[in-house]
Amino acid sequence: MGNSFDHDLFVIGAGSGGVRAARVAAGHGAKVAVTEEFRVGGTCVIRGCVPKKLLVYGAHFAEDLQDARRFGWDVPECGFDWPALRDTVQAEVARLSGLYRQTLDSHQVTVLSERATVTGPHEVLLASGRRVTAKVILVATGASPVLPSIEGAQLGITSNEVFHIEQLPRRLVIAGGGYIANEFAGIFHAFGVQVTLVNRTSQILRGYDESIRDRLQQISLAKGIQFRFNAELARVEKIGDGSLRLHITGEDPLACDALLFATGRKPNTEGLGLTEAGVVLDDQGAVKVDEYSRSSVESIYAVGDVTNRVQLTPVAIREGQAFADTVFGGKPRTVDHSCIPSAVFSAPPMAGVGLTEAQARKRYGDIKVYTSDFRAMKNVLANRHERALYKMVVDAATDKVVGLHMIGPDAPEILQAAAVAVKAGLTKQDFDDTVALHPSMAEELVLMR
Ligand SMILES: Cc1cc2nc3c(=O)[nH]c(=O)nc-3n(C[C@H](O)[C@H](O)[C@H](O)COP(=O)(O)OP(=O)(O)OC[C@H]3O[C@@H](n4cnc5c(N)ncnc54)[C@H](O)[C@@H]3O)c2cc1C
Ligand SMILES: NC(=O)c1ccc[n+]([C@@H]2O[C@H](COP(=O)([O-])OP(=O)(O)OC[C@H]3O[C@@H](n4cnc5c(N)ncnc54)[C@H](O)[C@@H]3O)[C@@H](O)[C@H]2O)c1
């Protein structure tokens, strides 16, 4: 691509979307630079999906070690060493970040380590004061945790800090009721921390199927995770012994040793110079883009969380790939945002794809709902009472499976495979025609009545 710019493509942000776009565009022959103000890998690798999932694995040993006794193993009293897990997870994060860096290097992508702001349709300004020009600019700056604007909010931490805490608190309050809140509730509860979730609405995990999230709430309560619903934090106060007192509107204050805000994330566009350059943002501050991820400025594109379409890593990666193929590979492509499977790595995990029962009822009117409510074989022998729940939502007119939702051991692993069938538009009959794989939990999918 011959032009008088320093680069064909300048990417701001080396996270899930930015790294993929940079690497693929370079593979298509473009001269690419990417800049990262924090650590290469972005949220998912450094302080999101990856370290979170490793903590989930670490947390699961609490139950596994207990259950092992019912399977004949002589397990002595086991202690848990938080710094040991924290540090091995951080070492793995550093290794992965290095691999991302290597991939960029091996594709001849220039990697810079400083903050960039946009100063025009083809120009960015680096923190060091250097100006760089590019034919195309890709904004892949992700999102950041939002804190409620209440007095003392700075006394709490967010998912950015939670991976690094010095020691486990005795009592942890988590504000919020979404993905991050429920995942960390499960993690810290397993480590022996007394966890209370403070939620301003009456339900956790809005958007997930109601029966499935109710089941998570029941199981969490039975484990000893506490919930405060319809509870709005009003003020946070540090008291003499170093602990925190949380003032909640209309309720008794709550004492804790640490407060984790899991109250949503906002697109990283503040101070980025986008509006000044003519890029239109929505009322949440997200970059408005068309189906090819192009903003209102012809030479500026955006992918991933900063566009606030679906805040998930595989979506950011697909958007980055489609952008690079479209703009530098001569293969225009869009990303299909329908039927995206997702999971909450709670304890037990839940996963879903397609429409919830309520959404399907609204869309199709006449639907059929099949469920399987069962205790996993392993849980029966372990004398663990929690039950798994699978739900299949079917359009009555066509027999098509339009939604699949589950909670139970390994639900995300099972759902990923089943999502192929839902995405392909298969029918309930197609599921029924498939012979069960026995004994498994996944066989419930083809045995639903
Ligand atoms: C705790 C947590 C758990 C999560 N778990 C999951 C999960 O299990 N599964 C899943 O699919 N998703 C998960 N997510 C969401 C997932 O991490 C994001 O959707 C994904 O990382 C988005 O990728 P991105 O490329 O848009 O942005 P990011 O990965 O956030 O990358 C953006 C990068 O841009 C950099 N940057 C920002 N501004 C500038 C600037 N001006 N100059 C230079 N660099 C800049 C940032 O430092 C960052 O590294 C989780 C998120 C969190 C917070
Ligand atoms: N397993 C996964 O795929 C995974 C895991 C973690 C995060 N993520 C992504 O990251 C995004 C952010 O996660 P999250 O859990 O922060 O957001 P979320 O949108 O899932 O939940 C935010 C919660 O905070 C509450 N809330 C918002 N403002 C509040 C306020 N001022 N006071 C009190 N409560 C408030 C909301 O009611 C909601 O319960 C998710 O939307 C998701 O896309 C994905």
Summarize the structure.
Belongs to the class-I pyridine nucleotide-disulfide oxidoreductase family. Its cofactor is FAD. The protein has about 450 residues and is α/β, with parallel strands linked by helices.
Descriptive account of the structure:
The protein is of the alpha/beta class and 449 residues long. Helix content is 31%, strand content 23%. The chain has twelve helices and 21 strands. The longest helix is centred in the N-terminal third of the chain and has 25 residues. It is globular, with a radius of gyration of 24 Å. The mean pLDDT is 97. It binds flavin-adenine dinucleotide (FAD) and nicotinamide-adenine-dinucleotide. Belongs to the class-I pyridine nucleotide-disulfide oxidoreductase family. It comes from Ideonella azotifigens. This is Glutathione-disulfide reductase. Pfam families: Pyr_redox_2 (PF07992), Pyr_redox_dim (PF02852).
